[in-house]
């Protein structure tokens, strides 16, 4: 079943359709309250804002449903439109509703004042006694709809004042209200009127007062209410509208004029486009009624739209060029206009089909021109009967039936642009009688259908021409039709053209007749007037022709006279004939010129008229231009003002932003500062804590050191040394204080005092050097060329075991171990040998009488480098050290030492002049790395794992040189006196240096910041240290000048373990106080 | 009340805007505050969770659409704060949280084509506006968000809400009495000359009932108009509460009810059978609703 369309389109909602009238609920209640309180409501508002709908579909159903509190339950609704005779319209409606005789009612009401109330009171509906009054009686509601028709129909006015009938009608309504108020009758009156006519209400006495008493100005719908208008009727009718469509419609809807008619019309079309609400109404349907551009659709919908659009006839497509919600009505009416002929041919069997498509369009144009007019520059509706329209068309083949059938397409229920509406297939409604009044459904059609607007403008121009012609004609008639008042040729041509174009007839003149005469009289007058127009034009034409004929006649007479003159002078000489011929030619030329001049005159006249018309147009355009210019100036001023405002706002915004930036910057700086302060404070606290901890630590360290120092004194009770040392040690451990060198030294001293650190037993022969092998055995070489091995077993074995002895005449002056198995020595006779102590193989080297100072093996073991005191350095093959000198160099200065580069190709040489050279074997070239003139260099040692070498100086300074870059890597003060020799242990990274002040300093090269461990001279029997070595267990062996080898354990824990076996008692508090002093302890 | 003087304050989450709309946003914020609308904004570095928390305290959000895209048709927001907040609000919107999209230029051109996509995605509780004036936009927002306090009446749940004209009270009483034996019924007799305003009560009670019945005997004119008005006020075909018009055959003919044909169910029967008719129709409707 086809769903009921809930949108009425351009026409107002009827009472039947009230169920779909939404968005005005609040306003309806407001009007009802006004009625309840004041007995009347004067509803005003803009055109097209739904005043009539609000009454018919809002107020009436509301009160019928029982929500209006009145005396009686039932209602009499008397509604009328003033039209061209308000009193008659009121009377007709009243008599019909109350069932009173029409003529009686009219004659009664003609008396005005209480007449209407009296008729009501006399009727059966005004019940005052008996039972069940409320059900028997009926309240009366009078509705004067479109009250502005009182003013728009000039028939309602006579000589600028309201006609008697008009005045009486208004008087009746106002008096009815007054009496109803006074007597509290259930009688109520509603007026609806366009607000732009409100000033004209002053034509009627008291009307303004009543308006002021109970006026309701229809408010513009709010967004939420428009949404209700759009969505709720569809829902109530079982359909649905997509929210996005609602949104587009709301945003595209112009506010003010024609808002609701345009909306309702579009919704009506949308509903039908969506298969009468079967589909969800969406953007694509809006596109199909030319209300939105197709590019607003999604891809899929757009494809569907394009397919649909391509099937449209070409004449329809042009209406989709500028899609917009306000274009929907234009497109709809335009398409109907174009397709009316086809509709006409396919329908209305009762009409004769003898017209052409062009005639069909002419009929429609004439109909709409008749149904509209320009009133005070406003296009307004103008009701006409079908016969009037047919009369104006004035063609034999076009009858009322033809006109009716052609415009039927505009009257169908679906299109509903012209009243009365028809029902498809219902001949009774399709066919109209000649006296049927036609009317456009809503003036919004006039304003939105572009073609109709153009027709209206054309019509207005025609009307002006008609008035001009009428003025001319009236002068002619008033002068008893004297020829002087006829039109000249130019005016005649202009008006004659208008006459032909407009094809006027008496009905057209009636349309322009503003008199208040009855229609019949108007037609009669128009007939007479039409004849006058025809006579006037014909007489003008005749006069113009007669004038032209007179001119021609005079010309002919002149020619004849000339001919006579020529004949009488035939005897004249030959030249006279020539003159005659010439004169004839001149005459012809003159005639031509005369005709030409006349034509020119006509053209000039035409041009003058055109110029006047152009001038008129120009004036209009000038006015328009001035108006536009003024608007432009206004717009510019507005724009300037807006620009200034925007500039001011911008500057203000910039200023605020700058201030905000500045504040932010300041805040940021403050925050940073605070952050810094906080960090600083935390740092200070940390430093303080650290300092406190350090201080505590230092105190403990100081006490420990002090105890250690005390432990280095000689006591009667040797165990006291051990007790002091252990107490110092315990203190350092308990307080997590690093064991100091002082403690270590004191420990060695205490152990020595208690016989816990005896030197190893040595040979009676003077040992010159020793070396420690991988098994921690010491290989020693003596001055008398004997080699011994000492297997100390951690210091437990103290006997030396001779392993090699070889023949030599002279004692050994100096020896250098290349490794534990190979030694190079120089004897007192200045011969130098290479000796393998295990195999006892010996080879003499080419020393050239010089004493060996240092020797080293390259890391790959392939070569041996020897350095001699006189300055020579030799690079030898390790397999044949005695035979093959790979390279040699002589620096001719005393050498201190050498070491090999890890790349096996370079040798660093240290001279007594504190020069360090790098000797490149391959290139056999020396490069000076540095020269320290201020200090004496004493020895050099390689630190291969760090790719460094250490150069020791006589003032205790040690410089570390990076062998990859040959630059200084580090430097430190390793002692207080000059160094004698240095040994590096690659496993531990310890650099052991013996110094002139009879000490051994152990430097941890992998942590140079650690304090070096120092073995003091008292632990070395105050003897010079000749040779130092470190075994894999961390034991230092030192050969001293007293020909003893001493062993020291660098691991303090191991020493503690040795001491602990002696079970020394820890010091008591009183002993501590005695040793350290009570004050000292208290101050800690 | 004709003028809306309801001052209940609305709280708006004013979303971040892209750079080109910063000035507009600044102005809008001022206008909103002048309109007594509470404004909540997120900080520049607000996370998604923080944004959700702020939105949960608001009634709606406002998003300004400029020439820089903040959203794409595939449904994801861009990396900007404005994009993130748009996406969060989109997930957030429901009957209690509306989403306002404002295009202050009033135009859609090649620079802001993404707005077309956004408009195609508009669903319930989303309001797009291209009002060029912030005043107009805020007026609309305030109107849409205004909540009028409802009068509370003595409403009770019922199977059937039985309405009749007081003029028919005698027969209505008989029907009602029988009907109350088989269903839970609430009734209302309308007295036309009473000063009582029934409108709000009827609509509220109808919503609390499973079905509405309009009974009439002599009051045909009233019944037809009343039924139509009630059908309209309760949402017509979209209403969840069906309406049933029943007339006493003693004084009514089928033709009298022609104005109801096509959209309202009605019947004419003898008054003793009427409760049964109503019961049958009620059961049918309940069955239909279950499906």
What can you tell me about this protein's structure?
The complex is a heterodimer of chains A (1084) and B (291). The mean pLDDT of chain A is 85. The longest helix of chain A is centred in the middle third of the chain and has 138 residues, at 574-711. Chain A is built from 31 helices and 39 strands. Chain A starts with 24 loop residues before the first helix and ends with a helix. Chain A is elongated, with a radius of gyration of 67 Å. By secondary structure, chain A is an alpha+beta fold. Chain A has a five-stranded parallel β-sheet, with helices on both faces. By secondary structure, chain B is an alpha/beta fold. Chain B has two domains: 11-145, Toll/interleukin-1 receptor homology (TIR) domain (Rossmann fold); 158-290, Toll/interleukin-1 receptor homology (TIR) domain (Rossmann fold, 3-Layer(aba) Sandwich), CATH 3.40.50.10140. Chain B has helices at 22-34, 48-56, 81-92, 114-120, 134-145, 169-182, 199-207, 220-233, 274-290; strands at residues 11-14, 38-40, 60-64, 98-102, 126-129, 158-165, 185-190, 209-216, 243-248, 265-269. In chain B, strands 2-1-3-4-5 form a five-stranded parallel β-sheet, sandwiched between helices. A five-stranded parallel β-sheet of chain B has the order 7-6-8-9-10, with helices on both faces. In chain B, strand 3 (60-64), helix 3 (81-92) and strand 4 form a beta-alpha-beta unit. In chain B, helix 2 (48-56) packs across helix 3 (81-92) and helix 6 packs across helix 9. The radius of gyration of chain B is 26 Å and the shape is elongated. The two termini of chain B are 42 Å apart.
């Amino acid at each position: 079943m086809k769903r009921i369309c809930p949108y009425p389109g351009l026409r107002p909602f009827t009472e039947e359709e009230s169920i779909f009238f939404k968005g005005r609920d609040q306003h309806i209640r407001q009007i009802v309250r006004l009625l309840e309180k004041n007995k009347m409501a004067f509803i005003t508002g803009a055109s097209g804002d739904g005043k009539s709908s609000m009454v018919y579909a809002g107020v009436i159903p509301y009160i019928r449903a029982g929500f209006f509190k009145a005396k009686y339950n039932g209602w009499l609704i008397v509604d009328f439109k003033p039209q061209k005779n308000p009193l008659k319209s009121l009377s007709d409606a009243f008599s019909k509703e109350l069932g009173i005789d029409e003529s009686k009612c009219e004659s009664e009401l003609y008396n005005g004042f209480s007449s209407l109330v009296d008729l009501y009171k006399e009727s059966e509906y005004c019940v005052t006694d008996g039972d069940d009054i409320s059900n028997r009686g009926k309240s009366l509601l009078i509705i004067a709809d479109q009250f502005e028709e009182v003013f728009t129909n000039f028939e309602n006015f006579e000589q600028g004042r309201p006609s008697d009938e008009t005045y009486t009608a208004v008087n009746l309504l106002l008096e009815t209200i007054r009496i109803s108020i006074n007597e509290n009758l259930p009688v109520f009156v509603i007026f609806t009127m366009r607000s732009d006519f409100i000033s004209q209400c002053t034509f009627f006495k008291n009307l303004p007062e009543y308006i002021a008493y109970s006026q309701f100005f229809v408010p513009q719908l709010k967004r939420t209410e428009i949404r209700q208008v759009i969505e709720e009727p569809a829902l109530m009718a079982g359909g649905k509208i997509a929210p996005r469509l609602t949104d587009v419609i709301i945003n595209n809807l112009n506010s003010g004029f024609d808002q609701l008619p345009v909306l309702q019309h579009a919704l009506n079309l949308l509903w039908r486009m969506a298969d009468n609400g079967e589909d969800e109404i969406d953007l694509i349907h809006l596109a199909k009624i030319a209300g939105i551009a197709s590019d607003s659709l999604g891809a899929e919908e757009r494809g569907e739209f394009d397919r649909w659009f391509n099937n449209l006839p070409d004449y329809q497509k042009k209406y989709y060029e500028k899609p917009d919600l306000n274009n929907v009505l234009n497109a709809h009416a335009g398409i109907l206009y174009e397709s009316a002929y086809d509709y006409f041919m396919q329908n209305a069997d009762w009409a004769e089909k003898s017209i052409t498509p062009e005639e069909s369009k002419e009929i429609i144009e004439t109909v709409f021109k008749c149904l509209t007019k320009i009133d005070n520059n406003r296009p307004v509706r103008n009701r006409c009967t079908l016969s009037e329209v047919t009369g104006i068309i004035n063609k034999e083949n076009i009858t009322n039936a033809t006109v009716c059938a052609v415009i039927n397409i505009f009257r169908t229920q679906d299109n509903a642009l012209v009243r009365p509406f028809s029902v498809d297939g219902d001949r009774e409604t399709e066919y109209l009688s000649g006296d049927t009044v036609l009317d456009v459904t809503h003036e919004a059609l006039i304003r939105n259908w572009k073609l109709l607007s153009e027709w209206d403008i054309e019509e207005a121009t025609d009307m002006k021409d008609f008035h001009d012609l009428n003025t001319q004609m009236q002068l002619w008639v008033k002068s008893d039709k004297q020829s002087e008042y006829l039109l000249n040729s130019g005016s005649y041509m202009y008006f004659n053209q208008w006459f032909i174009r407009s094809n006027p007839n008496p009905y057209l003149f009636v349309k322009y007749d503003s008199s208040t005469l009855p229609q019949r009289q108007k037609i009669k007058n128009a007939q007479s007037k039409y004849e006058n127009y025809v006579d006037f034009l014909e007489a003008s034409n005749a006069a113009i022709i007669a004038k032209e004929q007179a001119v021609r006649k005079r010309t002919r007479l002149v020619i004849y006279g000339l001919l006579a003159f020529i004949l009488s002078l035939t005897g004249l000489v030959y030249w006279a004939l020539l003159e005659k011929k010439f004169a004839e030619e001149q005459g012809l030329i003159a005639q031509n010129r005369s005709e030409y001049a006349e034509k020119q005159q006509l053209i000039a006249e035409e041009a003058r008229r055109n110029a006047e018309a152009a001038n008129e147009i120009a004036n209009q355009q000038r006015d328009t231009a001035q108006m536009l210019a003024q608007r432009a100036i206004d717009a510019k001023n507005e724009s300037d003002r807006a620009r200034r405002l925007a500039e001011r706002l911008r500057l203000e915004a910039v200023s605020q932003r700058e201030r905000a930036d500045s504040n932010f910057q300041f805040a940021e700086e403050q925050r940073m500062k605070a952050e810094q302060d906080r960090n600083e404070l935390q740092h200070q606290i940390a430093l303080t804590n650290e300092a406190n901890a350090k201080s505590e630590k230092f105190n403990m360290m100081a006490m420990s050191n002090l105890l250690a120092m005390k432990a280095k004194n000689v006591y009667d009770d040797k165990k006291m040394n051990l007790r002091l040392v252990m107490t110092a040690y315990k203190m350092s451990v308990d307080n997590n204080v690093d064991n100091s060198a002082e403690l270590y030294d004191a420990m060695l001293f205490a152990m020595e005092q208690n016989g816990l650190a005896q030197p190893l037993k040595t040979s009676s022969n003077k040992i010159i050097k020793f070396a420690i092998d991988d098994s921690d055995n010491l290989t020693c070489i003596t001055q008398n060329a004997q080699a011994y091995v000492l297997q100390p077993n951690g210091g437990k074995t103290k006997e030396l075991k001779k392993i090699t002895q070889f023949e030599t005449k002279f004692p050994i002056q100096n020896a250098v171990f290349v490794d534990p198995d190979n030694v190079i020595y120089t004897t007192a006779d200045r011969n130098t040998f290479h000796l393998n102590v295990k195999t006892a193989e010996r080879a003499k080297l080419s020393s050239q009488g010089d004493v060996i100072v240092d020797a080293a093996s390259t890391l790959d073991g392939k070569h041996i480098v020897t350095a001699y005191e006189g300055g020579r350095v030799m690079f030898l093959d390790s397999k044949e050290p005695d035979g093959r000198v790979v390279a040699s160099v002589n620096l001719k200065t005393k050498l201190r030492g050498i070491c090999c580069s890890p790349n096996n190709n370079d040798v660093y040489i240290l001279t007594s002049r504190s020069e360090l050279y790098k000797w490149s074997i391959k290139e056999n070239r020396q490069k000076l790395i540095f020269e320290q003139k201020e200090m004496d260099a004493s020895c050099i040692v390689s630190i291969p794992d760090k790719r460094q070498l250490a150069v020791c100086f006589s003032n205790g300074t040690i410089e570390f040189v990076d062998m990859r870059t040959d630059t200084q890597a580090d430097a430190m003060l390793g002692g207080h006196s000059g160094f004698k020799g240095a040994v590096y242990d690659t496993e531990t990274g310890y650099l052991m240096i013996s110094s002139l002040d009879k000490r051994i300093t152990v430097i941890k090269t992998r942590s140079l910041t650690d304090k070096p461990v120092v073995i003091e001279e008292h632990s070395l029997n105050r003897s010079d240290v000749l040779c130092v070595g470190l075994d894999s267990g961390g034991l230092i062996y030192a050969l001293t000048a007293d020909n003893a080898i001493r062993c020291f354990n660098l691991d303090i824990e191991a020493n503690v373990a040795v001491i602990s076996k002696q079970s020394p008692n820890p010091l008591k508090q009183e002993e501590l106080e005695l040793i350290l002093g009570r004050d000292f302890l208290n101050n800690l | 009340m004709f003028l809306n003087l309801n001052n209940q304050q609305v709280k708006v989450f004013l979303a971040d805007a892209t750079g080109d709309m910063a000035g507009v946003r600044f102005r809008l914020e001022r206008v909103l505050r002048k309109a007594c609308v509470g404004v909540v904004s997120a900080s520049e570095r607000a996370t998604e969770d923080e944004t959700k928390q702020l939105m949960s305290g608001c009634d709606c959000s406002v998003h300004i659409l400029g020439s820089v895209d903040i959203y794409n048709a595939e449904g994801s927001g861009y990396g900007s704060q404005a994009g993130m907040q748009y996406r969060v609000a989109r997930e957030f919107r429901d009957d209690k949280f509306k989403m306002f999209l404002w295009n202050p230029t009033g135009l859609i051109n090649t620079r802001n084509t993404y707005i077309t996509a956004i408009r195609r995605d508009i669903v319930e509780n989303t309001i797009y506006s291209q009002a060029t004036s912030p005043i107009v936009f805020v007026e609309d927002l305030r109107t849409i968000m205004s909540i009028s306090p409802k009068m509370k009446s003595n409403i009770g749940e019922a199977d059937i809400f039985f309405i009749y004209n007081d003029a028919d009270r005698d027969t209505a009483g008989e029907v009602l009495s029988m009907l109350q034996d088989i269903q839970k019924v609430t009734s209302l007799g309308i007295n036309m000359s009473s000063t009582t305003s029934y409108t709000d009560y009827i609509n509220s009670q109808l919503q609390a009932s499973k079905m509405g019945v309009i009974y009439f005997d002599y009051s045909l004119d009233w019944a037809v108009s009343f039924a139509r008005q009630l059908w309209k006020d309760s949402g017509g075909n979209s209403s969840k509460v069906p309406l049933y018009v029943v007339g006493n055959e003693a004084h009514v003919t089928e033709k009298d009810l022609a104005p109801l044909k096509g959209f309202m169910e009605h019947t004419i029967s003898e008054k003793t059978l009427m409760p049964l008719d109503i019961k049958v129709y009620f059961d049918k409707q309940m069955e239909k609703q279950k499906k």
